[in-house]
């Protein structure tokens, strides 16, 4: 009788040991998610700061551990199996939870300290960050803020997948299940070459020639904010969407190719200096975008994000 109990106890420990041995590691899951994001072994390895052979070996070890093929490898294409795609989504959640373990510890310590990853959209980053970063460094020297410049859609995807902690965004924009702190309103301006429009007044949407309107290409929420404020369907249909940055748009306007829309922060930052371009406020309802800091709901670092929002808002005023 006692012998049977002893054998059972040893057997149970062995089963626990075997189960623990075959658990995937966080590093393997990171490699798998990075490959899914990049679609290329070399780029995924760069994102993980390892060699391509190390990343490939890690994923093969993961496949061996769980006994299934997750990635179909050819010379030209990296293709995830249906089961591989499902495991990637699970892996994202596991990695996000693991990140939040560290967040819990940091939240219990000093405010705004340690590492924080913030995505910033291109129509905000070059105009606002130079004003706020010096103050942030001075007030919170223990904060290591890593910045990513991404379009609105990319930034929200990174937030929801746990690749970034918060986003400096212009609302309205659908960003998933998030919390936000509004910082300030940013008025919209119409920019035109000197002499093309009345420089003494604000510009009503009806005064904009739809055949000469130049806008940022798809992916930039400023385009949607400006077109929504104008409330002219023909503008959306006729506008030329080709600019990759606001500086590019200003140069095209300066060369007589058309007119465009700019946010007030860009005008205040001197984007029109050394050009023959004038900007006047857009005379329309809701002719502004709402600058906000956005983070995942129930994040353990909510206190830090709200404090950061206060700093960003104060630096703007």
UniProtKB/TrEMBL annotation:
<keyword id="KW-0805">Transcription regulation</keyword>
<keyword id="KW-0804">Transcription</keyword>
<dbReference type="InterPro" id="IPR036390">
    <property type="entry name" value="WH_DNA-bd_sf"/>
</dbReference>
<dbReference type="GO" id="GO:0003700">
    <property type="term" value="F:DNA-binding transcription factor activity"/>
</dbReference>
<dbReference type="GO" id="GO:0032993">
    <property type="term" value="C:protein-DNA complex"/>
</dbReference>
<dbReference type="InterPro" id="IPR036388">
    <property type="entry name" value="WH-like_DNA-bd_sf"/>
</dbReference>
<dbReference type="InterPro" id="IPR005119">
    <property type="entry name" value="LysR_subst-bd"/>
</dbReference>
<comment type="similarity">
    <text>Belongs to the LysR transcriptional regulatory family.</text>
</comment>
<dbReference type="GO" id="GO:0003677">
    <property type="term" value="F:DNA binding"/>
</dbReference>
<dbReference type="InterPro" id="IPR000847">
    <property type="entry name" value="LysR_HTH_N"/>
</dbReference>
<protein>
    <submittedName>
        <fullName>LysR family transcriptional regulator</fullName>
    </submittedName>
</protein>
<dbReference type="Pfam" id="PF00126">
    <property type="entry name" value="HTH_1"/>
</dbReference>
<keyword id="KW-0238">DNA-binding</keyword>
<dbReference type="Pfam" id="PF03466">
    <property type="entry name" value="LysR_substrate"/>
</dbReference>
<feature type="domain" description="HTH lysR-type">
    <location>
        <begin position="24"/>
        <end position="81"/>
    </location>
</feature>
């Amino acid at each position: 009788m006692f012998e049977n109990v002893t054998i059972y106890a040893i057997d149970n420990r062995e089963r626990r040991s075997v189960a623990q041995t075959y658990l995937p590691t966080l590093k393997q899951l990171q490699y798998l998610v990075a490959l899914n994001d990049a679609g290329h072994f070399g780029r995924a390895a760069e994102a993980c700061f390892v060699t391509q052979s190390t990343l490939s070996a890690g994923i093969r070890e993961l496949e061996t551990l769980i006994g299934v093929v997750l990635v179909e490898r050819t010379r030209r294409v990296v293709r995830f199996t249906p089961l591989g795609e499902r495991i990637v989504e699970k892996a994202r959640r596991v990695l996000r939870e693991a990140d939040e373990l560290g967040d819990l510890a940091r939240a219990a310590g000093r405010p705004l300290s340690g590492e924080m990853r913030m995505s910033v959209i291109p129509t905000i980053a070059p105009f606002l960050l130079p004003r706020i970063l010096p103050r942030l460094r001075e007030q919170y020297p223990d904060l290591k803020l890593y910045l990513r410049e991404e379009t609105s859609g990319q930034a929200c995807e990174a937030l929801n997948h746990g690749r970034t902690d918060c986003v400096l965004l212009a609302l309205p924009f659908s960003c998933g299940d998030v919390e936000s702190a509004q910082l300030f309103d940013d008025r919209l301006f119409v920019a035109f070459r000197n002499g093309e429009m009345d420089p003494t007044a604000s510009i009503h949407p009806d005064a904009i020639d739809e055949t000469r309107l130049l806008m940022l290409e798809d992916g930039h929420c400023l385009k949607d904010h400006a077109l929504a404020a104008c409330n002219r369907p023909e503008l959306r249909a006729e506008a030329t969407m080709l600019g990759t940055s606001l500086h590019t748009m200003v140069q095209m306007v300066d060369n007589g190719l058309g007119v465009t829309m700019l946010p007030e922060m860009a005008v205040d930052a001197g984007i029109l200096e050394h050009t023959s371009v004038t900007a006047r406020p857009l005379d329309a309802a809701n002719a502004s975008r709402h600058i906000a800091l956005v983070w995942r709901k129930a994040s353990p670092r909510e206190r830090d994000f709200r404090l950061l929002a206060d700093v960003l808002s104060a630096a703007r005023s």
